[in-house]
TrEMBL record, chain A:
Pfam families in the cross-refs: ABC2_membrane
GO CC terms: ATP-binding cassette (ABC) transporter complex
GO molecular function, one term: ABC-type transporter activity
Entry superkingdom: Bacteria
Domain ABC transmembrane type-2, residue spans: 21-247
Localization: Cell membrane; Membrane
Protein family membership: Belongs to the ABC-2 integral membrane protein family.
Gene Ontology terms describing biological process: response to antibiotic
Cytoplasm as UniProt keyword: no
The protein, known as: Transport permease protein
Keyword Nucleus included in the entry's annotation: no
InterPro entries per record: ABC2_TM, ABC2_TM_bact-type, ABC_2_transport, Nod_factor_ABC_transporter
Amino acid sequence: MIRHTALFTGYELKKSFSNPVWPLFGILQPVLYLVMFAPLLKTMTPGGSTEEALRMFTPAAMMMIAVFGSLFSGFGLIAELRNGSLERYAVSPAWRPAIVLGRVAKDMIVLVCQAILVLVVAIAMGVRIGAVELVLVLLLMAATGLFASGLSQGLALTVRDENGMSQTLNLFMLPIMLLAGLFVPISFAPDWMKAIAPINPLYHAVEAGRALFAGRLADTSIPIAFAVFIGLAVLTTIWSMRSLRKIAG
Amino acid sequence: MIIEAHDLKKTFTTRSRKGPQTVEAVRGVDLQVEKGQIFGVLGPNGAGKTTTIRMLATLIAPDAGTALIAGHDLLKEPAAVRRQLGYVSQAGGVEDTTSARAQIMMAAKIHAIPDPARATAEVLERFDLTEIADRPGRTLSGGQKRRVAIAIGLVHNPPLLFLDEPTTGLDPQNRANLWERIEQLREAGTSVLLSTHYLDEADVLCDRLMIVDHGQVVAEGTPAELKREVSGDVITLRVDDHARAAETLGPLARETRLDDDLLRVYVDDGEHTLPALLRALEEQGVKLSSIALDRSTLDDVFLAKTGRSLRDTGAAA
C-alpha cells in the first residue's frame, strides 16, 4: 500500500518537474499578488504600513495557492481517463487508492515548495513570523491543499469532461474567494456577508492564517480551521478514492 | 485453459432525458481459451467485444456469469487475476508528457519485477523502441504508440495478454508490422485474447475465434472451420432481376443470399461452376452487369449467421 502510494507520488512528481515551467508559473501568481496587491491594500489597513498589509495578505496568498493550485490538478486525471492510462493502472496489481493518493501527495509536496518560496518573498519584503507559527501555517496549508486536491480528483472522476469541470470550478471559485476575505478582510463586509462567511471553509483557513502571522497562537480560529480542514480533507480524499472505483468496477 | 468463462452478462443503464435506458451489452457469452492460443473476438462496433474484455480484465463486474482466468476466480480473486494480466485498451494508455521508458518502467515497478530497468530495456529492444524510448508520448506516431502500449502490457511477462482492437486506426504497413509482433507472442508462449472488427486480422492472427453480434456469440471455431461451414467459394453478381437469378442458380449453388443489391452464390468449386452459371443466366435472359469470384471470407460467415454483412455494420473489412 505505502510502496504503491510512494511509487505513484514519485512518478507524478517526476512528471510535474519534467517541465518545471508550469509549477513555476503556479508560484508566480501569489508572488505577483504579494508584490502588486499588498501595496494597494496598504491604504486600507489600520496601521497603514506595507508590513501590516503584508501580514494580512501573505496568509491569504498562501491559502489561495493551497486551494486554487490544487483545485485544478484533477484536469490531469481527465486526460488520463481519456488516453486510457488510468484504466491500465486500474488493471495492474497497484493498490487502487494509491493511483489517486499519489496525485494528492504530489500536490501537497508541490504546494509546500511553493509556500516556502512565497514565504521567502514575504520575509524579504518585511514580514516576520515565529517558528511554531510557521510550522502551523504550513500544516494548515497542507490540510487545505489536501482538501482541494481530493475535491478536484473526485470532481474530475465524476464529471469526466474538461468543459464541465472548468465551469463547475468557476461557479464555486468566485464566491469562495470573496467570502473568505482573501483580498479584503470580511471585517469590512456588510453584516449579511459576515453572517454567511463562516459557512465557507476557506474563511476559517484565512482567519487562522492571519492569526498565526499576527502571532496570536491562542486564537480560537486556529483549532477551528484545523478541525474543519482535516475533516474536509478526509472526506474529499475518501470521495476521490471511491470515484475511482466507479470508473473501474 | 487460460480463460474459461461461462454465461457472462452485462447490462448498462444510461440516464438520458427520455428516462433511463438499458443496453444489454453482453448477453450470455461463453469463452474458452487454451494456453498459448491467440483467440479472437470478431464483431462489428457495439457487439460487446470491449465490454467482454473489460469484464475479463476485472475492470467492470459482470451482472451474471463466472470466469476462471489463469486459474483464479474472476469475481473472488480479482487481485490475483490482475497479477496474471497484461491489458492494452483500445485507447492504448500511453501518456502524453512522459517518455515511453518512464511509463514502461513504472509498469514494471508496479508489478514488483526484480530488475525493472533491465526488463524495460529488454521490452524496448524487443519492440524496436530503443531509439525513441526517451521521447514524450505525444511525439510518437500512431504505430509507435501502439508498440509502446503493448510493451507496457508485456514488461512483466504476463501469461495472458488482452488486446482490445490493437490495429484500429493504423495504416496497412503498421498493421502488418504489428501482426508479426503479435504472432511472435505465440512463439513466446503468451496467450492472447484480442478483439477486432477486421476480418483479415482475425483470419491471419487467430488460432481460434468467436464471432459476436448484439452481445451474443454467433459462431466459434478456427478460421478454417468457420469458413468451411459456409462453403468454399462465393460468386458475387450484380443482376437486373435478383429473384429470377436466384431461382435459376439455385440448383448450382449450396446457397444464395441477397446482400443489398448484390447476389452472393455460395458454391463448392467456383472455377468449375462459373461457366455453367453464366450459361444458365444467359438462357433465362437475366442481364448481368458484374461478376466476381472469391474464396469465402469470415464476412460470409458473419453474413450467414446474422443476415448482415460486417461491412454494412460500419466496420471496414
